[in-house]
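Justification of computing resources. Each target in the renewal requires a structure prediction run like the one illustrated here; the chain below, 159 residues long, is used simply to show the kind of job we budget for.
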Amino acid sequence: MSKTRVVRIKPTCFAGTTKSNNSILFNPTEIPGSVFGIGGASVIKSIMIVDYDNNISKDTHLFFFQRGGADLGPLGKAVNIIKSDLSKSEVLAMLSVPGVRSTDMGAFSNAKLSNISELGVGVKAKYGSSCIYVAAISKSSGTVSTVDGRELIITFGPA
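Resulting structure tokens:
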């Protein structure tokens, strides 16, 4: 029996358009079933981002945490988290998902798909928990719209 899990989440995104550099697309969002068992671990094997606004031309930086209580800052603005809150969130990893130009494979008329695979990044839930959290910022200094949101499709395997 395979222990691979595919988890889909649709985080609450900034519902507007911003020109802020390194703007927050969404704050820490729970990824249910992301680890195997209470306090367990897993390996991130791949990540796909579906951009329903069709404008993900710049990289998206994803931050993974053991705890999800502290926001990176206001949605659509630059990251503004204080050091103590960042420390309490217990950072696990930062991964960059490449943007998609309109001529790349993954560019559809109504959405763009961006993917990274063969990752092998280990993550572990906090004791007493069975999940981790993810937040995202856009690495764009241009206009970014997230009115229709993003969907993350993350494949986890056993640690």
